[in-house]
Amino acid sequence: MKFARSLLPFIGALVLAIPARAAADFQPAIVFDFGGKFDRSFNQSASEGAERFKKDTGVAYREFEITNAAQREQAMTQLAKRGASIIVAIGFTQASAVEKVAKQFPQVRFTLIDAVVDLPNVQSVNFREQESAFLCGMAAALASKSGKVGFVGGMDIPLIRKFALGYVEGVHFVNPSAEVFQNMTGTTPAAWGDPTKGAELAKSQFGRGADVIFHAAGATGIGVMQAAKDAGKLSIGCDSNQNYLHPGSVLTSAIKRVDVAVYKSFDAARLGTWQAGQVVLGLAEQGIDYSLDEFNRKVITPEMEKRLNQAKADIIAGKLKVSEYKAQ
Amino acid sequence: MSAPTKLPRWAELALLPLLNLGFALLLSGVIVRLLGESPWAALKLMVAGSVGTQEGIGYTLYYATNFIFTGLAVAVAYHAGLFNIGAEGQAYVGGLGVGLVALWLGDAPRFVVLPLAILAGAGFGAAWAFLPAWLQAKRGSHIVITTIMFNFIASALMTYLLVNVLIKPGQQSPETREFGAHAFMPAAHDLLARAGLTFAATPLNFAFVLALAAAVLVWIFVWHTRWGYALRVAGENAAAAVYAGIAPPRSIMGSMLLSGALAGSLGLNELLGSQHRILIDFTGGAGFVGIAVSLMGRNHPVGIIFSSVLFGALYQGGSQLSFDMPKINRDMVVVIQGLVILFCGAMENVFRAPLTAVFARFGRSKTGL
Q1: Which of A121, A272, B20, B23 is the most buried (most CB within 10 A)?
Q2: Between A114, A156, A327, which is nearest B169 by CB?
Q3: pLDDT band at B352 (very low <50, low <70, confident <90, very high)
Q4: CATH code, residues B41-350
Q5: pLDDT digit string (tens) for B131-166?
């Protein structure tokens, strides 16, 4: 409900906004990473934020989807040269490119999502994914009848371990004796786009007795969720709100509001309130959350909702600490 | 049709590839048209973006450098009758060798680091080709299967190392720290500036020259040495090779190790020349493009250089295209690249028969060439 309500103004704006003539000197730009802007997950969320900004303000933006590592720097350099006012770089893999290009173009503003670059013209936006993963772990443990739950990650990288760690803590917070099966899909970036393998991993975890699986695997997760639907079990979505994919079979989603981060960054740059530095978005800042809408209303019982919201309040208040995975 | 006549050499080497390329572009143009953009404007953008500016040329040749290395790697194996699908993995592990040297000795003088990095890249790449080669030579395990498997093993190994061992502490991205400045391959614009010429800043670097040198060495090795001769004989006909006193297992080992060493040199361009750190998936599919490059270049170093530049131009022109024409997204660019591979690689013989017929009819007097 809350999520649906938060969408209302945007839907309204979508219908009503008459594109105003934009100030010609403000040119926002966005660079997506390997996943591409239609990954139904992380990059897509960013793309939606940018689209919404365009609808609301009438300001067009430039975009680029990279296909190889060298293009990150190339795209940013080119955008900067062509007079981009702000460049939003999506994904931690862009950090080194942002660092290089931001030094060369000190007058251009950069917003980097999911990594930190410490420069006077770079804003680094990070999320406390472990907090939503924790809540999803709690939801999984509360919904599980077998006391066994699963996790399917995409590529085995620190970010995904961060999800996994928060999830496991959440599960054990509710049920200390619960068993958590963990699988990573692969070791290449292909692991983000392999629904078939995602489904296989999910099936094997169901076979071992799991009845709820959380995925943090981009498009691979589509397969995880399909397998859960086919087996009559539950899945938990990631990054975007994926509850609508299989109503009744998706327990909830760990939402990461990349769209809000992109939108805010563009808008702040437009209004001149943009600031460099580090921004960390967690539950308290509504940068992340678990999702509750009409699609999963039936699977989240009022008791579950109560416990989840209690934990959420405790995390926000600092009474409940969730560990963060640190790359050594 | 009459008995197959041979095409004149110039038609074989220039006309046929150009015809294939032309048809690929024509078909791409149709698709661009269907997407509602002007094919002519798209072509102009691609050409101008890839060879029309200093930056375009720099990026084109920078991509081409990768393809020359992997293309040569595929070609050397091909001449020994082996289809090396593993250039990708060999390049990846070769890059590890290059990167380790650069990380350890990044502050040592350049004339120490760079030769060692070159040796390490070649050595690691060759080492990664060793097992598949040995399995093929001694056990008859098919090289296509084993090299594909080794690509995945390479990927798993590199991810493990980058995530758990080599990662720069305290960051998300599985990358090493930046190499010491002495381990950077000299950039083309710096080298040209020293010669008094100004050139736009691009990732093009000295590795391009090394790639050209590698092409010359491959040419000498394959066509002008006894080992190269033995390798080609064993590739053409293993039984005849044995009869001639050549041991096919030895030429299998030799060609695969050389192939791995060439692929492993990709890191010189990509890591020392451009990224200056080891990062996940830096090969970006160049090992597979190398197969297309080698086939299109008829497995000859000169052909490989030309087709590498063509593919470099497609990469660079394609990214320029998707940059300036939002309707042509990166997937569309892959389609265009795929059509070029299809026409120039897989279907290169489609136009051969008609072309031969045309030459047979009109050029009968000239066929004595």
Answers
A1: B20
A2: A327
A3: confident
A4: 1.10.3470
A5: 999 999 999 999 999 999 999 999 999 988 998 899
Q: Which residue of B has its CA nearest to A114?
A: B172
Tokens of B266: 């990709």
Strands A250-256 and A288-290: antiparallel
pLDDT tens string B24-79:
889 999 999 998 889 999 999 999 999 999 999 999 999 999 999 999 999 999 99
Name which of A70, A157, A187 is nearest B203 (Cβ-Cβ).
A70
**Residue of B66, B172, B314, B322 to mutate, interface with A, max A Cβ within 10 Å:** B172
pTM for this prediction: 0.83
Asked if the Cβ–Cβ distance from B159 to A70 is below 8 Å, we say no
| Interface predicted TM-score (ipTM) | 0.76
Determine contact, residues A215/A195, Cβ cutoff 8 Å. Answer: no
Hey, what domains does chain A have and what are their CATH numbers?
2-127+257-281 (3.40.50.2300), 129-255+298-317 (3.40.50.2300)
Q: Distances from the Cα of A296 to the Cαs of A3, A224, A251, A257, A292, in angstroms?
A: 12, 17, 6, 19, 6
- Contact between A234 and A212 (Cβ < 8 Å): yes
The three state secondary structure string of B297-342 is CCCCHHHHHHHHHHHHHHHHHHHHHHHHCCCCCHHHHHHHHHHHHH
